[in-house]
Structures are given as C-alpha cells and as structure tokens.
C-alpha cells in the first residue's frame, strides 16, 4: 500500500456519510468478542469487542426502515452509529429468520429456512474448524486461524463501506492498480451502495477525490505538499502543536451530497 509520502500516512478519525439510529436493545452472547466454529448470531444476539468499544450484530437503521443488516457500531455512543455494514445491498426483514455463522472457513449470513447464503466473505473453501471471527477494539472484524492468530484470512478493514477508522486500508496500490474507497449510503435509513465515493487519486498524484453521481467531481484535496505539510486545496490545515501532528477540517457529505458535518484528517510521520 502506497502512503501519501514516504514519511507520512493518513487516517480519518471519523468519516460517516450517513448516520444510523436505533433504539432497540441488544444482548451479548457468551462468546464475548469471538465467534468460533459452531457459534452463530441471530435475532438480537451480538458480540462486543474486548474493551466494550464496538458491537457486531443485526441492526435496523432509523425508525421507519423495515430492513435489517449485519453491521458494526459504537457501543457507548447513544445515537447508534454504524461504521461498517456487511450485507448493505442484500437486506433482510427478520433477523430471527437468519443467522451469521462460520461455514467452510467463511463468515456467512444464512437464511435459517433453507440455508441460502445472503452474504459471505467469499473465500476459497477451508474445511478446517480452527477458523474464528474476532471483533477488535479498533472496529476491525477479522477472520483468523485460532491456532495462529497472526494468520488473517479476511478483515473488514480491507472491505470498507462508508467509514474509515484508524488502521484501515485506504489508499492506492500501484502493484494491483486498485484503490480502496469509501462509498456513501443511499439514504439516512438505507445503507445500500450510494452515489458518492471518496478515493485516492489513481494517476500517481498524492491527493483524494470525492465523486458524485455520474462520476461528477465534488471535491479534491489538491496535491500533498511535503514542505508545508498540507494539501493544496486545504489551506485551513494547521499545526495543532509542536511536532509533526497536523489536523485538517474538511466537509463531510451525506448520501444526498449535502454538507453533513466535519471530519478530522490527521497526518503523522511514521515511526522510524
């Protein structure tokens, strides 16, 4: 993964194109932060990261939506805010009729009635029963080998939806010629793939682009200036304190392309 410069890397502390609300209570299963072979989530069951920061389970966005999704949200934020959605384009209407489980080494959302897959991590089949799913305090959901936790088969940080969390993969990979991008929700109560996306420039320029409907350019950061430690189109970037920590306040757009708040973009030098 290529960083903006050889000495700098970027993370967005919070970027949410659509806010999610839900007042329904949730319960945590005995598995804690882990799903192992034979475990499953259904109905209002959840798992919670070890430090009680993030929750994984079924949620219903807003008060009028009839659809449910598997997602990750903050546990201690009163206004439920989803940071990742698995089946964003394949909703279900009854979480008690579906289950999230491990099958052939994959994390799969199944219909209980006929075991039809609704969503899957879609990895090559692995019949080993040592695969487990763990939700981390960083908000990353990982599929790993329980006998060797450093072996990761899949992680949500490599499959972003509308939110970037520190540590996630967000950049342009010159080797694969692919970029990781954030895509807005379709609406405030509809997390399906929306019309707006934020992604790194693919031509080699060190900048980020926000595209709208029909690939219309909405905003670009301008190229990174290593000497001034700022993006060309972000003159409001200022140094917060002595040292290399900088903060840029940029507009955050919702699923309709409207200004919806602020996001923090931090630049820090890599540790040598």
UniProtKB/TrEMBL annotation:
Residues 32-156 form the Bulb-type lectin domain. SMART domains: B_lectin. Keywords: Signal. Pfam families: B_lectin. Residues 1-22 form the signal peptide. InterPro entries: Bulb-type_lectin_dom, Bulb-type_lectin_dom_sf. This is Bulb-type lectin domain-containing protein.
């Amino acid at each position: 993964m290529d960083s903006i410069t050889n000495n700098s890397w970027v993370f967005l502390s919070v970027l949410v194109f659509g806010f999610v609300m839900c007042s329904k209570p949730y319960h945590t299963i005995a598995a804690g932060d882990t799903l192992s072979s034979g475990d499953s989530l259904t109905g209002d069951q959840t798992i919670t990261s070890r430090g009680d920061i993030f929750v994984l389970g079924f949620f219903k966005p807003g008060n009028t939506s009839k659809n449910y999704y598997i997602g990750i949200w903050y546990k201690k934020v009163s206004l439920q805010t989803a940071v990742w959605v698995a089946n964003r384009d394949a909703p279900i209407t009854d979480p008690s009729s579906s289950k999230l489980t491990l099958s052939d080494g994959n994390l799969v959302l199944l219909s209980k009635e006929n075991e039809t897959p609704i969503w899957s991590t879609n990895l090559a089949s692995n019949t080993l029963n040592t695969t487990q799913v763990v939700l981390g305090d960083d908000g990353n959901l990982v599929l790993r080998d329980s006998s060797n936790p450093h072996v990761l088969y899949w992680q949500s940080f490599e499959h972003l939806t509308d939110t970037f969390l520190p540590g996630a993969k967000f950049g342009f990979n010159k080797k694969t010629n692919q970029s990781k991008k954030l895509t807005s929700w379709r609406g405030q109560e509809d997390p399906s793939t929306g019309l707006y996306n934020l992604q790194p420039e693919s031509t080699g320029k060190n900048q980020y682009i926000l595209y709208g409907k029909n690939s219309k350019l909405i905003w670009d950061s301008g190229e990174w200036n290593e000497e001034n430690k700022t993006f060309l189109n972000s003159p409001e970037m200022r140094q917060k304190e002595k040292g290399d920590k900088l903060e840029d306040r940029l507009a955050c757009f919702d699923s309709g392309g409207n200004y919806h708040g602020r996001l923090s973009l931090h630049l820090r030098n890599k540790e040598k």
